[in-house]
Write a structure and sequence with these properties.
This protein has 106 residues and is an alpha+beta fold. Helices cover 33% and strands 35% of the residues.
């Protein structure tokens, strides 16, 4: 599962960075999709300050994976042109109906 989730997580972030909201929404957990439409997702996540994302660590048990990602971001500080900075974040992916999905709390 680590390889599958690593690839899906990378694909999700590649879509987010490219502005492909429909593709990114496609990776969200079914519980999220029961509450929010693709349009809602696009409004909640209109863009990202990330310039690049790399999956660094994936640790899984039977139905849950914790994913660590490195992000290069430009901080959104009005009036200042900031250089890119490195950030680290974690996210949860859940196995449901035979597929891995990013979990975003509905």
């Amino acid at each position: 599962p680590e390889q599958i989730v690593s690839q899906r997580a990378q694909n999700y972030w590649d879509a987010r960075i490219a502005g492909d909201k429909a593709k990114a929404y496609g990776y969200t957990h079914p519980s999220y999709k029961q509450v929010y439409t693709e349009k809602d997702f696009g409004q909640q996540y209109p863009g990202t300050f990330a310039k690049s994302v790399t999956v660094k660590k994936v640790e899984c048990d039977a139905e849950k994976c914790d994913v660590g990602i490195n992000m290069r971001v430009v901080p959104p500080i009005i009036g200042n042109k900031m250089a890119e900075v490195d950030m680290y974040a974690t996210e949860t992916w859940l196995l449901t109906d035979g597929q891995w999905w990013i979990y975003i709390k509905p």
